[in-house]
User: Fold these one by one.
Assistant:
Number 1:
Amino acid sequence: MKRLENWFENHEPKGRWSWLGSTYEAFHTFAFTPKTVTTSGCHVRDAVDLKRAMITVVIALIPAMLFGMWNIGYQSLHAGFWQNFWFGFIRMLPMIAVSYIVGLVIEFTFAQIRHHQVNEGYLVTGFLIPMIVPVTTPLWQLAIAVAFAVIIGKEVFGGTGMNFMNPALVARAFLFFAYPTRMSGDNVWIANDLWGTDGVVGATPLAELAAGMKPSASALDMFIGTIPGSTCETSVVAILIGAAILLVTGIASWRIMLSVIIGGGLMGLVFNQLPTANCQLSTYFEIPFYYHYLMGGFMFGAVFMATDPVTAAQTNIGKWIYGLLIGIFAVMLRVINPAYPEGMMLSILLMNCFAPLIDHCVVALNIRRRKRR
Amino acid sequence: MNLKKLVIEPLRKANPVTVLVLGICSCLAVTAKLKPALVMGLSVTVVTAFSNLIISLLRKGIPSRIRIIVQLVVVATLVILIDQFLKAFAYDVSKQLSVYVGLIITNCIIMGRLEAFALSHGPVESFFDGLGNGFGYSLILIIVAFFRELFGSGTLLGYQVIPQSFYDAGYQNNGLMILPPMALIIVGIVIWIRDAGRRDVRHET
């Protein structure tokens, strides 16, 4: 390790290699803490810098990722623990690799062209994207979605920290609208090609409800996560472990998580009260409100997507409004519009667009209130 | 004034869509397929050129307080002629374009050229200016429609371009290309690529 560090210190690109500066800087700071320090002025530095914050989110995602790998195998094979896990691991690995390779190549290219430093934002985005798509998503479609999300969702606005929509959700939304047959329906959620069990299909609880049936899985199954769904967002238990890590370390905002959950529950209760005697979707209106937390990507979105510090509201009151509206819109889209069985993605993207407006209003109201005093 | 320059300049340096950002609405609406985009571009070119010519001939006689009304009457007459012509000779395309032929009246490029050019230039120059701006608009329409039809439907002008073997291997048409937001994104990318090579608009950081 010492030798590698010395190699880095002595091989800073100069002369005709100096155009590689930002790539060098990225690898160097990824591996070691450089010896260069600022020489003038006073600087207040926190131990939790951008790299550390991002890696904490990745650690918080690992329980959900591991459970997701096991669940892919379980849904498809119903075999022993290690066999299930190995099958899921083999299926997830190419998706993670494609997401990171495509995304990082674009990130490095843009950093090089613009003479920026390479930002760490993609570490989390690249981890999130394979976790929120169906396991049967073709790799080339995943690659296009990643490229679209990084270029159109992020780089055109100036890179990490400048994007107004969550890039991982942009990738999912791109897949959802571009290749709808691979993103919804009954036969995309279970890996039944490539030495999986042939012909196994399974509907997600959300799809069953949108079709007017009661979900076939019990609430406990949905809580633990042994149901068909996007690769790593089925298990509420694993997501709650991740949420605990994020909250203890203070990386994510508890206000947003709590308000999303309250908003979704409130809307579920409201739908319970509505008269639905002859309505086609009456089962969807009547399910207990906490079912909305257990199904689909609600908890995953509330914990990992809505709390993205770049795209969420910044003010404390704004965070409450932002979170409540995400929960309300997510449940509303699910229940009222059967064309979109999952409303979480669209409601988070919608509120991402409104977050700056919410902040503006909160700040303006505060200024007015204090002027009156 | 140089007539050739009047026709060439709106294609790149003063393009009505990518530089002046006019006529975006119809650009989103009619570019899902190449054929309606071609017809639309041609129609707008004809209307721009002849309305420029007519207004330029009348420019000394139009009182400036009612000039917008006069311009609208001229443009509306030409648009209705085009609409009837399409209905008579290209009925299926005219059905695809539906209201957007009628909406050429509200196309900002036409009013923009009348106000900015035809009212202060002679008839020949105005005619060529209208032609150039119509071509500039058509060019962007064709570029956008080319990519949207190729990746959205796998066809060009209705002919299958992407071979069946691709579909058998797992290729799928991109459904987002059919939706209007993608037209906006493609126009944005066209502007991006064009501006990337231009010194005068580049912001050095």
Note: Residues 222 and 232 of chain A are 13 Å apart (CA to CA).
Number 2:
Amino acid sequence: MGFRIEAGLADEILRELKKSYQIYAPKRFPGQGRFAETDLIRYDEVSALSEIVFDEKSDYPAKEVITPIQQAIFYFTEEEYRASRGKSKPILLFARPCDINAQRVQAKIYAGNGGYEDLYYTRMRERVKFVLMECPGGDDTCFCASMGTNRTDDYGMAVRPDGAGGLLAEVRDEELLPYFSQAPAADFTPAFVTENETAVTPPEIPDKETLLKLKAHPVWQEFNGRCISCGACTLACSTCTCFTTRDVVYGDNPEVGERRRVSASCQVEGFSDMAGGHSFRPTAGDRMRYKILHKFHDYKARFGDMHMCVGCGRCTSRCPAYISVTATVAKVNAAVAEIRGALGQ
Amino acid sequence: MTNPVQPVPCKILSVVQESETEWTFRVETDVRPQCGQFMQLSIPMVGEAPISVSAQGDGWVEFTIRSVGKVTNVIFQKEPGDLLFLRGPYGKGWPLEQFRDKHMVVITGGTGLAPVRSMLRRFAAEPGLVRSVTLVAGFKDEGGIVFRQELEAWRTPFRTIYTLDKGEKEGWRTGLVTEFVKEIPFTTFDRNYAAVVVGPPPMMKFTGLELLKQGVPDDRIWMSFERKMSCAVGKCGHCRIDETYVCLEGPVFPYTQARYLVD
Amino acid sequence: MNHDINIKKLRLNCFRQSKEDGKFMLQMRVPGGFVEAKYLSMIRHISETWGDGNFHFGTRQTFDICGIPYENIPAVNAYLKDYIEEVDEQLCQVNMDQVAGVPAEWDRRGGYPTIGARNISACIGDYHCICGNINTFALARRLEKLIFPSHYHIKINISGCPNDCNKAHLCDFGIIGCAKIDYHPERCIGCGLCAKMCEHGATRVLSLNEKNGKIDKDPCCCVGCGECVKACPAGAWTRNPKQFYKVILGGRTGRQTPRTGKMFLNWATEDVIAGVLGNWQKFSAWVMDYKPEYLHGGHLIDRAGYKKFKEIILEGVELNPECLVAEDIFWHETEYRSNFNVKPLSAHHTAGPQPEGTHAH
């Protein structure tokens, strides 16, 4: 069902929805950007339509709602580990197609890999209904069309701002329909981006020998001088899932505390350090290779259906050292071509 | 829904000091890991780490832990009767069915002996399970030797070469394990053998290369990897190498696969 | 050459005497060192029409046009009308028909009326710089009308961040843009990069707490540079949108007693800065018994004593709750000669209103 929703009514509907749902959307945080007097756009609970940023891509991805940077997974008292219970209120999550498709990737790892289903991911994911934000085209860092993540069918509702503070909406979820009884019907289905300014061709790595040669190729060495290993790209990434667990004691009572899951970045030194002191991938170039190949080769080699990268371009946007993921993939492609040429492929 | 990362309390049965820095904890549990598997061991307020099972029996498993790192340091304050928290076992252990009736070559560096110990105990306890066992065990120095009594006891059923990287010891050789690979009588094994290598990453790399140099085909070599892990169930991403998760597909890998697992 | 020129009067008019006979250098105010590039054509015109064809970036960010013969000065001043009106009157909303608050009609074709309050210099600030915490030239434009025109001398330098590229520590009244930093621990991944950057480039107030994987901060010693914000991959550190400033007081170069300034205010808001500078004319006038001299602000503070300065300069200023004020300041001067201040009592300077018939030195 399509609806035209005036500004005032939209906020009324939002207020009603908030009684039954937590509503998360990209929100502007004035002055909280990396540089002075710049804004930060990230996900947070919203109460009014005007709080939702439609025209600009958020700096941080929608995954933060489902797999937060930090969450308590166990509470312990003396000698008991009790799993955190989590909340049950369902969530409406405003997201662009890239962010929605990213959940297919996160689910493969969290809810499927190795036959283990992660309690914390699944219970959160099950609460979420997506509100598809029709993408106005992204920016020059986007390449969703190249990754096949420009379209999605996974939404309970889709919206497009009407330019006058209101919305055009397509409501598909039966549970959401009653909220729109006051809104006049309108013909609306969301449009999808079909082409981006930037295109990417993921590398074709036909076999293990080529992969081994690519891993040792000098193409990665450029990043030893450029990448500062801050991990901003992985925090901004729509699909990165890595985390570390950490036990924390509350205050001055060592018998009470929690076990936390905190996002981890393969780009930050120490990610692979073992208790005995041995570490792997000691250079920024090694770590860049690890990330890029995961996004554009390894994940697909394991799970088959799609690449890990959804082309949201946030890693490029957030990189303080101006490292472009699309330019990097192009360099990797050149290296692969060189290797395959030498191997006579 | 079950929680795959839920730790279960287990009572410590005994604590034995193996070396200057290594201790073996026997813990009460009904789980029966395969030889070569590992478990996630945790202490509330401190954290969790993957530890390989170094021996097992009816109602117990043993872990041999080096006194390094935050989790493992606190374990050394534990006494019999205290609780440790376990989950697992995880990963794929040694392919014992494939090893049956073969001449076994086991090469270890330092505490790399721990992940093969339960398998060696089985070989010693069940003569005839494999044709023969050649054990090359190396340690950095005398203070680093673990499982001393078992090593001595194994001199009889196994062909043994024990070595220290530096220092002299009666009945022991001096030098890196790689130097003794050429003394292994592969030609007498009738092409019916398997080689197992466990130790620090450089030791495994160079031992693997030395085995190949001695004419051992790559499909007869097996290795066990050690990696940082936060979950052991394929979620946290720390142990991933390419499309392989060490916690799920490892820690034991055939060399045909391991040679591509470059970090 | 036979000249009869009042060079003091010309100096007040912002023309500096040249070593070349009969020639002068014009110093044009550029508040905050930032104006539209279109004015470069004016500079070129003045220089090529009345000067020697060159210009110099003044050390206080003035456009300095040298080699102007004395007889060209009236024509230059007439031409300056548009520039002064546009930059000072319109951009900075300066009331040109007063001097230090006393009504005095400005001769629009007569060039600059005073030289006392020097051009407010500034680094590029957050208009461009990734380190900047504030818009420096916007602040300069706000302050310009408080200190100019005036015969009381003050040098104000504005730096956008505590890196202090524009040397707030070496002028009478140095202003440094600072950020109060908010920590969002729920976004912190414990990578410790902020602590590394703070140690590398600031005051080592951050450390990674190994027990909880979060950052401990010694808030007292934070200079408010924002390096942690720049470093954080997760947005766990953000600048508080309220902007703050440090004031570094009494720094100077010079032949007698050069010294770096010391902190007078910390975490002051822009309104407090404006309030304080609004009292500057009053303070200067009081110290010099209402008779302006060619003497810079730092020396005036010396004469009055810091505590008297503080009393007058804070009069009627409502301090923001975060604002800290130096109780006392002890400058450390370079001693070109020892016991520089020991001299006959009759040679001592005075401060404040003097009995009729006497005059401060």
Note: Chain C has three domains: 1-100, 116-172+242-361, 185-235.
Number 3:
Amino acid sequence: MEKKYWQSFGELNQTENFKQSAQNEFKEELLPLADLDDKGIIDAKTPRRDFLKYLGFSTAAATLAASCEMPVRKSVPYLQRPDDVIPGVSNYYASTYVNGGDAISVVVKQRDGRPIKIEGNELSSITKGGTSAQAQASVLDLYDNTRLRYPMQKDGKEFKEVTSFDAFDKMVGAAITGKTVVLLTSTITSPSTLQIISEFLAKYPGSRHVQYDAVSYSGMLLANEATYGKKAIPSYHFDNAKVIVSLGADFLGTWLSPTEFSKQYAANRKVKSDKPEISQHIHFESMLSLTGSNADDRFLHKPSETGAVAAAILAALNGTTASFKDAKLNAGIKLAAEKLKAAGGNALVVSGSNNVNVQIIVNAINEAIGAVGKTINWAVTSNYRKGIDADMNALVNDMNSGAVGAVLVYGVNPAYSYNDKKKFIDGLNKAVGISFNASMDETAENCKYILPANHWLESWGDAEPKSGYFSFIQPTINPLFKTRAFQTSLLKWSGSTSADYETYFRSYWTGKLGSADTYNKALQDGVAEPATAVAGAAAFNNAKVAEAVAKAGTAVAGKEVVLYEKISIGNGSQANNPWLQELPDPISKVTWDNYVMMGTEMYKEMFGKDVIADKGASDAYEVHPEKPVVKVTAGKMSVELPVLLLPGVQKDTIAIAVGYGRESADAAKTIDYIGRSAKGAGKNVYGFVGFDGTTNSYTTAVSVVKVENTTYPLAQTQVHGSSESRPVIYETNLKSFTANPAEVLHEITHEKLATTANGSTDFRKDATIYPDLLEEKKGIKWGMSIDLSTCTGCSACVVACTAENNVSVVGKTQVKLAHEMHWLRIDRYFTGGDPLNPDVVFQPMLCQHCDNAPCENVCPVAATNHSSEGLNQMTYNRCIGTRYCANNCPYKVRRFNWLDYTGADSFEDNQKPLLGSYLDESVMQMNDDLTRMVLNPDVTVRSRGVIEKCSFCVQRLQAAKLDAKKAQDPAVVRNVKVACSQACPSDCITFGNVNDPESEVSKARADKHRAFYVMEQLHVLPNVNYMVKVRNTDRELGAHHEEKKEGAKAHA
Amino acid sequence: MSLLKYESQLREPLVDGDKDYHQVTEDIVRPIEAKPSRLWYIGFWISVGLLLFGVYSIYREVTYGVGQWNLNKTIGWGWDITNFVWWVGIGHAGTLISAILLLFRQGWRTGVNRAAEAMTIFAVMCAGQFPIWHMGRVWMAFFVLPYPNTRGPLWVNFNSPLLWDVFAISTYFTVSLLFWYSGLIPDLATVRDRAKTKFRKLMYGVASFGWTGSTKHWQRHESLSLVLAGLSTPLVLSVHTIVSFDFATSIVPGWHTTIFPPYFVAGAIFSGFAMVQTLMIIVRKVFNMQDYITLGHIEAMNKVIVLTGSIVGCAYLTELFIAWYGQNPYELWAFFENRGNLFSPYGWSYYLMMFCNVVSPQLFWSRKLRRNITVTFFMSIIVNIGMWFERFVIIVTSTYRDFLPSSWSTYYSPTIWEIGFYLGTFGLFFTCFFLFAKYMPVIAIAEIKSILKTTGEGYKAKMTDVEKADAEKFYIEEVTHAH
């Protein structure tokens, strides 16, 4: 008999009960509801507890099921991987950013075949690794969805596609044969292109090449021709200058080659406690410019007095005292002359004026002080700007008289930027217009044929920013659209033997550089430069000086306008770049608009409110984005713009930025033709540009009238200008600093001594009863040092950070609500005793990565925490968005995703709410598939409802650590470059491992007399330190000084 | 209950109108058994309308983002947390009346405790909406619960005051709800016993948990009441203390203040009593309960209002003094510029708060005004406006200009959806309150009966003589005799 195993007597005996229960798989009732049919809820068999259990389970299950749904995204791997593409690994190619005459040697970061970031090329001796905001942002222009996608031909009023390049070539060939052809281009710095142009012109007799700059430098070119016999611009060496006098030249912001000049300038502005010596920068201007705000001493004059001021400085060099009404200005001229004379040739005077006479006087001053040969190098000339205003005017006249058969427009947009744009458009319509511009801009839409040229990131090319210094462009991506290099077109149309520009380019440079190897080396390096720098003077012809002084002009009565470029939008060619539109102007902190920059005195006169004396009025002005509107009129041109109140603007002067107000002929088409970001941003004021018979003038007399009952909102990212004497910024003058380097931080040192436990100055250790958990930690500790002395406020770092970290664009409406997302911003403070002409301090502000971070302990879900390397980390997918951390951050660097800025939300279609639209078109622009190609795949795109902030570019740090491990060399992580420090043209941001005494950041911090932490008293223990700003002036500086003086008075 | 009571010879009766026990039941149960009035319907549907608008406002906020509100990089909290603290504050009076006054044997509480407790529960429900829906990702709100999870050692942050809030508010809500409900049981049984329809009998039967009124039931009921009162008493103090920690433990100037816990608790009681006044005055009028909610009640609560209002006033002045005495530049700025300077952008809100909370309640030093229903009603609203502004002042005027002047904010004013959310909680509150008033006894029947004889009889017996006698003689004879 079979052996029987049993578990219970029931099983052994096979009772009826057992059999039944063995059959029944579910011994308890499964669903409570089955019993509810007829018995009613009270008598139901399922007990209440079970009901609650089921209820709880099903609710939880439903919740989980509902919240865990993720969209499925498919990716397809390479069947055959290209040699140089490793998924997830970036490649870097040297190239050159070119836009008009601007050229900056760069390195392009390419990821999976897409260029995503621009970095400076350190091999260039001109820019030395520096970049500008515009260069940083230009990668976004590549993915601009208003770029034209194929060649086009005008058919009636509409444009239609031309199916092939061949067909286009035939059509254009027929259209221009036998006609006078004019090539209207921006300043071209490319030697190969210039050669192609000359070959092309030879093919079409009677044709000519006109170079046109939206903002002209012809005054300088003509003055140099008059005095040195060369229609060129020399090389400037601000690094050799101990004294710099600028007459309204914004050389750190927009003048000529600001990236290059920032590098040079900063080299002489870095103060060392042991050897305190910096250059002295004296600035004369009418409005408040970026460069002016960096000056040691700044003096104001009327725009029409520019020539007179230049002449007065020249005269003062010979001991003549200036006799302006304004005593401060006279003192400034005296000071400038004295310092210039004393510098022994190591001095430089530059002027931003486009007036030939002013520039001749400036040349005479430079000659008189012996600058030529020392700070001005005529052996190497600059090629950034070559346009002559009279040439352009002659062309426009010729076009109108029908003398021009065809106009080939490349890289310029005179239908927008020419002062008499109607006349230009009329002329263009009389000729055959052919546009090579990338988008359907104001000029292209008036052309008959359009053949969009490649973006520089898709091109071969070269640039010669200075004679003998070459910089190369190699494509980092195939052309996205059916576009063709401008040069290829010219080659085709001139019947060249070269098939295309690439072939031509290769043979041109292989020939010039000697061999294929040197050519490849040059491409790889991105630059080819003379082995030794040559310096040289030029013979000065002073014949014209006396005449120039006589014609220098005197002040005109009444109000005047100064037209200027912003570091973001420049001349307007990048107006559809949302990164640049949203970049706050470092001076005004305004985004997305231009405006009338007005001083406090004129504001009082026009609006009856004295914002200096009346705190209520200044509060009311700053807390409301709605600003009063004025109408500015000069001749036929008039424009209504909001008033931006700024101290430090001359009392009869207003200033308006050019580059705004892009608009198609049919305004409704602007959004499709020029772009969603450009539309509605500001007003076009090129119409105020005057012509004085020789050159364009960017200042003119205007009437300014209040527009009653009208306001216009300006989206500012900073509204309060004073630091309120808080320990946020420190500044001193060189004299006090030399005499007693410890004095500037005396107050905080004193406070430390008074408040720490045992009279030490170590807040970190001795101002707390808690143990310092990070103190004993060895290994890496990341830190940053920012030198306020060299930060010029140029904002290249802000755009670099935006590009590197996929920082969202939020549009004007959101910026107005203070919802901007920038991880890094430039804070601007007005300091000093003179509210009419204050000093300006720029302070890059980013997450300070506090070791005792107030944000970390308040997060209920621990979404933000501290790494063992001193990083304050943000875990986006843990964040529930209580915003407590942002409230508790004393530096206000945390940014909240208020709306779905990225389209990354799991809620669909929520960017356009019913009843009111909250997201601007520019946000949609950033969210379309083409534009999203610019995103950095190493950085998470944040979704709505989470906080984000500076991560110290943790993706770069991880990569560097990996490299260090592979190389078995800890030194690799010593001086890692984060995006902001990489971009900085003035080297004011130093980053690295502070536990490594050899790192740059450790060395910077070793300067105890200058290193301070913002609001150190709060004991949040920041990992970012700042260096005191030192100005080379005799004035007492800073709010702290003011206080000290008041204190002394009170004691007395 | 009689142990907790003693018969007062001198006080006026807690229940007017010479009621007997049956009349009490009749009076209080009448609204439940009768058809609701027209006024009730109007009020109810307005409330439901507001509630729906609130739901839509929240729907927008959840779907489109917190950007539907006008908060910004500097002002991370605005109307949302202001309303949260305000509602939590209102939710203090109920438990205070039930628990602390029970322990202090304040017989007068029985007239108002039921409605006040209901108000507490509804107010806390309203308050709870704000911290939940103000989150950027509310669908992840369960992250704040410390539950075992599969995310490794990922746990909530016990350092965060917001987490303490989670515990404090949920505990307070649970205990208040239990307390309120356990008090309701005998009364619901009364309604059940009088029910005429089967459905009513069933519903009230379920709700009263089979209460029979046996001595054992009463004994357990009283023990439970005492235990819950004991539990609630510290909660009354702790909830607002912990809410105040949201601010006090931060470093924001104007928030970082050690005086906050007592000041918040006093403020909460202040606003809570004001809200009780508002509601009671309406209830006694609408449901004709002047005999149960007497002028004596109103006067007693006005006394609490003038006391707590003065405490709050002292706290305001202490804050100012400490800001001056401490000479911390940031704190000085927050108190003397952002708030104290009437001409600064938000100066008006500080002075409005001062007027409503400190100046206006001083009227109640006058007995005449304390016993004036119209004055009390308006004052109760003024106090609640003032207390709303107190939270607004604390939250917004501290953050809009804090440490770093570069980040000082533009002027913050709410969007329609922020206001809508607030109105929505009014809708929730009043919808609940109307339903409560219709379906549950708004006055604790059993408890009011326990005090019916303790004051009324003695008072009546004595006061007829006293009223005739002259005061001096009365005091000499009666008072000295009593001792």
Note: Residues 738 and 763 of chain A are 26 Å apart (CA to CA).
